[in-house]
């Protein structure tokens, strides 16, 4: 213990010569193995020593320091006192136990026959505590990433990692989690947990953002009659969020002359008011961020042309008729 106690060598010269009457003590043989008491940091430890009907002089020692001699307190530590129940108990109580209290404690007995001792070893456990964890990071797809999570505790804590996606399966890593060539599906919130079964595990989180270039996932073409409003749509995924542009041939379109461009997060919509014959045809949606660019064709069709309005290429009705004619000639129908 950190407080100053008098060295045990003073016992025969001082403690047992000043004539105090201690308590009768039920002691154990000095050859008996030391008992262990395990206590959590901050809790109160009571180290038991019981009496019988034999008159004795008694004292409590920690390592080689006197804590109590009979009822006289030699320790200056205010957290330490005696627990006595009549003349039946001479136990030592330590409040708000800390790691420096760990060690051997001896209840020393002087009987008329011979001195005896009862020894207890106090083990102080400390809950797991994470004292350093990686900060939130942003990286580009394909980069190598190392996340760190350092923890202390007694016994030493076990450290585990999870990526809190829907499965949240454990990841291979302890203090350091290495991710080689990180992919976009590995972005998210990483959980570091330190546990040693002393108390509730300590948990910290690291947010990992993975940048990647745009990918156009879906286009929506439109089959619109003359005089009605046509709507073309383009959806893309990217981090950072993509910027969108619309083109007709080589000309960039803007909010003018019956055109309206809306951008809603990762979706853009081109609205064409009062469609005319000149508006039919191919439009290009361009999605870009600082990592790359991707474009896709979106079509405004005349009604009844047989085009796939979802933007995938298909054969027009006239082409189908031509193919059917060739097939008929081939099979002599």
Automatic annotation (TrEMBL):
<keyword id="KW-0393">Immunoglobulin domain</keyword>
<protein>
    <submittedName>
        <fullName>Limbic system-associated membrane protein isoform X3</fullName>
    </submittedName>
</protein>
<dbReference type="InterPro" id="IPR003598">
    <property type="entry name" value="Ig_sub2"/>
</dbReference>
<dbReference type="InterPro" id="IPR050876">
    <property type="entry name" value="IgLON_domain"/>
</dbReference>
<feature type="domain" description="Ig-like">
    <location>
        <begin position="24"/>
        <end position="118"/>
    </location>
</feature>
<keyword id="KW-0677">Repeat</keyword>
<dbReference type="Pfam" id="PF13927">
    <property type="entry name" value="Ig_3"/>
</dbReference>
<feature type="domain" description="Ig-like">
    <location>
        <begin position="127"/>
        <end position="207"/>
    </location>
</feature>
<feature type="domain" description="Ig-like">
    <location>
        <begin position="213"/>
        <end position="299"/>
    </location>
</feature>
<dbReference type="InterPro" id="IPR003599">
    <property type="entry name" value="Ig_sub"/>
</dbReference>
<keyword id="KW-0732">Signal</keyword>
<dbReference type="InterPro" id="IPR007110">
    <property type="entry name" value="Ig-like_dom"/>
</dbReference>
<keyword id="KW-1015">Disulfide bond</keyword>
<dbReference type="InterPro" id="IPR013783">
    <property type="entry name" value="Ig-like_fold"/>
</dbReference>
<dbReference type="InterPro" id="IPR036179">
    <property type="entry name" value="Ig-like_dom_sf"/>
</dbReference>
<dbReference type="Pfam" id="PF07679">
    <property type="entry name" value="I-set"/>
</dbReference>
<comment type="similarity">
    <text>Belongs to the immunoglobulin superfamily. IgLON family.</text>
</comment>
<keyword id="KW-0325">Glycoprotein</keyword>
<dbReference type="InterPro" id="IPR013098">
    <property type="entry name" value="Ig_I-set"/>
</dbReference>
